[in-house]
TrEMBL record:
SUPFAM superfamilies on file: HIT-like (SSF54197)
Family, per entry: Belongs to the CWF19 family.
InterPro entries tied to this protein: Cwf19-like, Cwf19-like_C_dom-1, Cwf19-like_C_dom-2, HIT-like_sf
Record-given protein name: CWF19-like protein 1
GO molecular function: RNA lariat debranching enzyme activator activity
GO BP annotation list: mRNA splicing, via spliceosome
Length: 528
């Protein structure tokens, strides 16, 4: 059993444990994270400390999280506090008789060195990592216990409710979890229950598959909102498991949340080169004079610098898709954000076939900076909602081959006729006919984990998050994505597979753009 903040409510906790054991049978141990003692613990605690009462199960607790509770822990390195109640210590590894390995870190993050008795510092975390990572054939630990949440744990995952995982918790704990790869990581202190989707510990197609990690935050004992504070689970020690069984990936596995924060931290450390100037940002007022552009000056930007020092690529010649370029057919632009814009496709497969494009010059998705990716994701969400309101789902594809500016082609198809399985089967069947091999990428994965910058590829993404990926190593049919969608199996528009056969006059293009703009307006976050 794992438990959140006890806050000195020992009778409530142990009463609940007895009830669970009476119904489900004996548990091996109880692991407590967060505040074990409360501000009014003394009366209840005295009965256990003196032996008048006894915990019904071997109980292991973490140390103090503030100065007021330090006195409850007489030996900083760990000790028995009462019969069946053990303080693990400031940091270390507890190995059970079964071979179960439990890493633990007591206290909250501190910038001071040495850290106060109720805190841990970067040095503490570094020493714990070193002691464990130096173990021969280290693969990870079975369980990690910390009181604070790891900062950024919610990236790529299900919502944590009212808890903002980008601001909550400890960066040092995130670093520790990333290195130790626990199969289960328990934390507390936020008075909330959050069971994150499992995340992977390897890069898809680049590293040998490893076990997944599960993060579970628990609420406080006896809380009025009835949030879950006890978590029961069964675990076979990693050392006793069949290797193939250990690395099995569940259906709902996501990308590793800490890789994102590590990348951002590395980019934040990179100095802005002297010759590198902030990129100009153009905005188009689509409600007034179509195509009029204005340069957002330093005053309007609030003199803010770009978040990253990632230098924009420069086109080799005139670019039809850089928004500031005179080559852009601006009457097709239907929405403009800060980093990306939407435009109707010229010679579109359908009248509402749109492109998501970065405003600056980037060749592919894997080259994008984090703020561009963030806005691109917003556009995908808005288009999903927009097309679903019309009884459609979108199919998105990118061809990073014989192109110099990223174009994400977004084509709506009927929901009732084109299921996810139908779409995937159509792409795979036509690929096999042309000796093209597709790999199915897990739903929550990041394309940057599969392709490096500069790698030619083609990938398809459904609005469910499912993806198919092909690494291009030789020739590749330029109209492949359109050909599949135009086939009889899906849209039954084979005559529109080549965009050059679908060109219309400017007046019709302008009318289609006005109609799309009008319909998309309620979903367009860029107008808010």
């Amino acid at each position: 059993l794992a438990c959140g903040d006890v806050e000195g409510r020992l009778e409530a906790l142990f009463g609940r444990v007895r009830a669970i054991q009476g119904k489900s049978g004996r548990f091996d141990m109880l692991l407590c994270v967060g505040n074990f003692f409360g501000s009014t613990s003394e009366t209840e605690w005295a009965e256990y400390r003196t032996g008048a009462k006894k915990a019904p199960i071997p109980t292991y607790v973490l140390g103090a999280n503030d100065q007021g509770r330090v006195s409850y822990f007489p030996d900083i390195s760990g000790c028995e506090l009462a019969e069946n109640i053990t303080y693990l210590g400031r940091r270390g590894l507890y190995s059970g008789t079964s071979g179960l390995q439990i890493a633990y870190l007591s206290g909250t993050e501190s910038q001071e060195e040495p850290a106060p008795a109720y805190s841990f510092s970067a040095k503490d975390v570094a020493e714990l990592k070193t002691s464990l990572l130096s173990t021969p054939n280290f693969k990870g630990v079975d369980i990690l216990l910390t009181s604070p949440w790891p900062r950024g744990v919610g990236a790529f995952a299900n919502s944590a409710g009212e808890i903002d995982t980008k601001k909550c918790g400890s960066k040092l704990v995130a670093d520790l979890a990333s290195s130790l790869k626990p199969r289960y990581h328990f934390a507390a202190l936020e008075k909330a229950y959050y069971e994150r989707l499992p995340y992977r510990n390897h890069k898809v197609l680049q590293e040998t598959p490893q076990h997944v990690s599960r993060f579970i935050a628990l609420a406080d004992v006896g809380n009025a909102r009835k949030k879950k504070y006890l978590y029961a689970f069964s675990i076979v020690p990693m050392s006793l498991m069949d290797p193939a069984e250990l690395v099995k990936q569940p259906q709902d596995v996501t990308e590793n949340p800490y890789r994102k924060s590590q990348k951002e931290a590395q980019k934040a450390k990179a100095p802005l080169c002297a010759e590198e100037e902030p990129a100009c940002q153009f905005f188009f007022d689509l409600n007034k004079h179509q195509g009029k552009k204005r340069l957002l000056d330093a005053k309007e930007r609030g003199n803010s610098q770009p978040k990253q020092a990632k230098k924009l690529q420069q086109p080799m010649g005139p670019c039809w898709f850089c928004l500031a370029s005179p080559e852009v057919e601006k009457h097709l632009v239907v929405s403009v954000g800060t980093h990306c814009y939407l435009a109707l496709a010229k010679g579109g497969l359908l009248p509402d076939h749109v492109l998501i494009l970065p405003i600056g010059h980037y060749q592919s998705v894997v080259d994008l900076s984090s703020e561009v990716v963030e806005e691109l994701t917003k556009y995908k969400s808005a288009l999903k909602e927009f097309f679903r309101s019309k009884g459609k789902r979108y199919v998105l594809f990118e061809r990073n081959y014989k192109s110099q500016h990223l174009q994400l082609q977004v084509i709506p198809v009927p929901l009732d006729h084109c299921t996810s399985d139908n779409i995937k089967e159509s792409f795979i069947a036509q690929a096999q006919e042309q000796q093209i091999e597709f790999l199915e990428i897990p739903e929550h994965s990041d394309i940057t984990q599969v392709a490096q910058p500069g790698t030619p590829y083609f990938y398809v993404e459904l609005d469910t998050g499912e993806k198919l990926f092909h690494r291009i190593r030789g020739r590749f049919p330029l109209h492949f994505g359109r050909e599949v969608l135009a086939s009889e199996a899906l849209l039954a528009l084979p005559h529109r597979a080549d965009w050059r056969q679908c060109a219309t006059d400017r007046a019709e293009e302008e009318a289609q753009a006005r109609a799309f703009r009008r319909d998309f307006r309620p979903f367009d976050f860029a107008l808010r």
